[in-house]
């Protein structure tokens, strides 16, 4: 019988238990996947704590993984047993050795990309895709602001935006993270612990501000980010690692320059199979060409996922973190 991380009650990392589970067999439109590597993301913390309501209790966290198809159900023809696949869209459930899931959420992994890289990049990479290519399509000559520039999404977004011809400003929390962000396409890393990032952004843009801010931090950066925008600029609030954003008086958007605000999620951008294939295809192409490098800087055994969560919440990680299976 396979084993999985199971959460019976939302709360801290100690609520994650390594247990034997029954995953069943694939029905129509489903596939059984044997995971080889599982990705770690902040959304996993949100579900574990109950900030995002889990689908039910008990539940297994995790949104992304790579592995091998073991069996498919009726009507599945785009993948077959033995195929290497990855995913990052769908309900939680990735922190497990095996999983039955909707086959239309699975994409084949190119031979040139390892399972570890695939598991580390699917959610973060496709998030960067929709941020830069769909929510606010970045174009050559743009100057943009990326919060948490040394994080998993941040490092990918900096490289991708630089490839698109943008000048990238990024916030980080230490000199070491500043150097890491700079090495991955961030032209102007700002250490928010020693600099006022609003003043620095205004200085770097000659007082104009930026047309877009990509913010996964939330509570501590939300309001200052509005002051970084140029008139009719857009704040893309796609995470809340520092805590939930407080209610906003929408009149502030008018007062600060007829600003736009959006709170997108990856799942709405790849809900259609066609969009999922486009997102994964563009991501795979840039990784294969070396335009985007996926930094896997931390590894934990899946059974020790609680330790990985502690490191992530303690801001002790950079780049991508993966959970390994023996």
UniProtKB/TrEMBL annotation:
A GO term, aspect molecular function: NADPH binding
Does Oxidoreductase show up as a keyword for this record? yes
Tell me which PANTHER family the record gives: QUINONE OXIDOREDUCTASE PIG3-RELATED (PTHR48106), QUINONE OXIDOREDUCTASE-RELATED (PTHR48106:SF13)
The UniProt similarity line reads: Belongs to the zinc-containing alcohol dehydrogenase family. Quinone oxidoreductase subfamily.
One GO term describing the cellular component? cytosol
**Keyword field contains Oxidoreductase:** yes
Instruction: Outline the extent of the Enoyl reductase (ER) domain.
Output: 11-323
Write down a Pfam family by its short name.
Answer: ADH_zinc_N
Reactions catalysed according to its record: 2 a quinone + NADPH + H(+) = 2 a 1,4-benzosemiquinone + NADP(+)
Entries under SMART domains matching the protein: PKS_ER
**InterPro entries in alphabetical order:** ADH-like_C, ADH-like_N, ER, GroES-like_sf, NAD(P)-bd_dom_sf, QOR-like, Quin_OxRdtase/zeta-crystal_CS
Q: Gene3D superfamilies in the record, alphabetically?
A: Medium-chain alcohol dehydrogenases, catalytic domain, NAD(P)-binding Rossmann-like Domain
Q: Please state the Enzyme Commission number of this protein.
A: 1.6.5.5
Q: Which PROSITE patterns does this chain map to?
A: QOR_ZETA_CRYSTAL
Under what name is this protein listed?
Answer: NADPH:quinone reductase
SUPFAM superfamilies the record matches: GroES-like (SSF50129), NAD(P)-binding Rossmann-fold domains (SSF51735)
Q: Which UniProt keywords apply?
A: NADP, Oxidoreductase
């Amino acid at each position: 019988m396979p084993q999985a991380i199971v959460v019976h009650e939302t709360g801290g990392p100690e609520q994650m238990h390594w247990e034997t589970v029954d995953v069943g067999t694939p029905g129509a439109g489903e596939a059984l996947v044997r995971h080889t590597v599982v990705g770690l993301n902040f959304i996993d913390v949100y579900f574990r704590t109950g900030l995002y309501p889990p689908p039910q209790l008990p539940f297994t966290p995790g949104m992304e993984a790579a592995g091998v198809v073991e069996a498919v159900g009726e009507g599945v023809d785009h993948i077959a047993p033995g195929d290497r696949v990855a995913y990052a869209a769908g309900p939680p459930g990735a922190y497990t050795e095996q999983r039955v899931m909707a086959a239309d959420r699975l994409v084949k992994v190119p031979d040139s990309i390892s399972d570890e890289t695939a598991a580390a990049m699917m959610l973060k990479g496709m998030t960067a895709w929709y941020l830069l290519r769909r929510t606010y399509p970045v174009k050559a000559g743009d100057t943009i602001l990326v919060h948490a520039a040394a994080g998993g999404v941040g490092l990918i977004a900096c490289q991708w935006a630089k490839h698109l011809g943008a000048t990238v400003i990024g916030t980080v929390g230490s000199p070491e993270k500043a150097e890491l962000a700079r090495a991955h396409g961030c032209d102007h890393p700002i250490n928010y612990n020693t600099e006022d990032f609003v003043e620095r952004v205004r200085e770097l843009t000659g007082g104009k501000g930026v047309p877009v801010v990509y913010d996964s931090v939330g509570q501590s950066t939300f309001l200052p980010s509005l002051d970084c925008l140029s008139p009719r600029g857009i704040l893309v609030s796609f995470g809340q690692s520092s805590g939930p954003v407080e209610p906003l008086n929408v009149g502030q958007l008018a007062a600060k320059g007829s600003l736009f605000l959006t709170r997108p999620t990856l799942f709405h951008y790849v809900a259609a199979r066609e969009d999922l294939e486009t997102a994964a295809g563009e991501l795979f192409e840039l990784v294969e060409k070396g335009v985007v490098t996926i930094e896997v800087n931390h590894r934990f055994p899946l059974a020790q996922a609680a330790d990985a969560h502690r490191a992530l919440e303690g801001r002790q990680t950079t780049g991508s973190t993966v959970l390994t299976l023996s």
